Amino acid sequence: MKTHTPVFRAFITGLLFITTGNGDSVAQQLTAVQNYGVNRPGVVMVRTVFSADVYVNKMQLDSRHFNELVDSIQKEDSSGIVYTPEEKLDIVLREINSHPNRFFKASLDYIREPEEITSSGTGFLITADGYVATNCHLIDRDNAFIRRQFFLSAFQQITEANISALENAWATRFSEQQKSILYNTYASVYARLFSMVLYDLRKDIFIEYSVDSANGNTSSIKKSAHVIVKGQPMPGKDVAILKMDGDSTLPTLKIAQDELPRVGEQLFVYGFPGPVTNNNYVATESAIEPTLTTGIVSALKKSVAGWPLIQMDANINRGSSGGPVCNEKGEVVGLTTFGSLENSGGLAAGLNFAIPVSILQEYLDSAGVIARPSETSLLFGDGIVFYDREFYKDALKKFRQVLALNKQFPGLAYYIKDSERRLRQNDEKKSSMIRVDLLVFALFLFGAIVLFRYLRKKGIKPKA
Fold first, then answer.
1. Distance (Å, rounded) from C-alpha 43 to C-alpha 251?
2. pLDDT tens, position by position, 88-98
3. Which of 147, 209, 260, 458 has the most CB atoms at less than 10 Å from its CB?
């Protein structure tokens, strides 16, 4: 058997890479940079907006009892006990807090408080025409939880309005401690005397993702979506398949085979963690850029219902739920779903769990949805690998094919522009090298002519 040299083997390997095309190259092991470049376009933000109107009785201060309280304080002034205005106000607020039912009563009028609560998380495109995979708990909050959040939000706004009204009526400004006393007072009153009623509860689901604009900058698009099929929030199978309008050229992520990853395998996790998305020092337009964290498969566990879970040490946070967990080939092996809690109630770092794609596949099958990479993503993935290996001409060819199919493909403008720039630099280097070679050759030729004439003048014949 003939043994090939290392150079020959490297040549054959490179030739096979170049001739595979249509995404086969992306199925190879990717670096972290390539993994992000390939998958970032298909990662989307999932927002569920719950809205409703909260109605509550208007609160009235009982003038008779309040005046009696003020009169009693004034009588103490006349008896020789002198209070400062601040001390008088403290006495009034403490007395009202101790006997809220005596000083407040409900009126027949209602306050209407429109409320809106947004639940944000992550998802990823699995088909070119707009099917999205995510967690069920992002779109299917428990009704009791929603009602509680609405009432808390309405209570806060109504209470702040009541405190502001008291400040105006009494021509004063409450200290933070006095405001705290009033908050407790109003909480007690609303809990005992007033009922809050929720009307017209609505739920709207939106998918938000980045696109390239006409000027080459990055912007975002928000589209409404609807539920195709869903499971149940944990401890149920926390999976949902959504559908938004698509044009059959959207970027996608590739789903791995049903096999579970092995303990110790490298993982790449994408998401929109809340501490980043809501950070006051981060520009709002960059909130749509997904965050990449890495880790390994720490263990393979089972849920309380008996189906498998992937434990990983990649960092996640609220807002990362529903995001894709990818292997080193860039394929999705799971969905980020939940973490572990410390005794303090915060998330325990590095003890997080993903639902494997075998569970996702159950819902895809039940809905008749076939997850497959889009043509644009296959071409773009090949272009990313070419680009990372500095084959800029081949990369540019792939990127321009993507551009012909989808002019808004996220991140495409950057790669086209940079590939063209690097090709120009390479051409300039080649031109510079050619000029140097020509100059060296010209100097060598000139020297040879001078030497030949010198030898001829001396009558010395060059030896053959």
1. 9
2. 788 888 888 88
3. 209
pTM, entire model: 0.75
Q: Are the C-beta atoms of residues 339 and 351 closer than 8 Å to each other?
A: yes
Q: CA torsion angle for 138, 140, 145, 146 (degrees, to 10)? A: 90
Q: What is the DSSP letter of 459?
A: T
Q: pLDDT at position 286, please?
A: 81
Q: Which residues pair with 155 in a beta bridge?
A: none
Start-end of H helices in 79-175:
85-98, 100-103, 143-170
- Report how many domains make up the chain: 2
Rounded CA gap, 371 and 132, in Å?
10
286-313 in b/e burial notation, b at 16+ Cβ within 10 A? ebbbbbbbbbebbeeeebeeeeebbbbb
DSSP 319: T
263: in domain: no
- The amino acid sitting at 204 is D
Q: Which of 72-81, 289-298, 410-419 has the lowest mean pLDDT?
A: 72-81
Placement of tokens 């996790």 in the chain: 269
Angle at 187 (CA atoms; ends 184, 190), nearest 5 degrees: 150
Residue 318: how many CB atoms within 10 A of its CB?
17
Question: Pick from 165, 185, 202: which residue ends a domain?
Answer: 202
Least confident of 143-147, 192-196, 224-228, 402-406: 192-196
In 3D space, the residue among 96, 55, 54, 89 whose CA is nearest the CA of residue 73 turns out to be: 89
Question: What is the domain range of residue 449?
Answer: 387-457
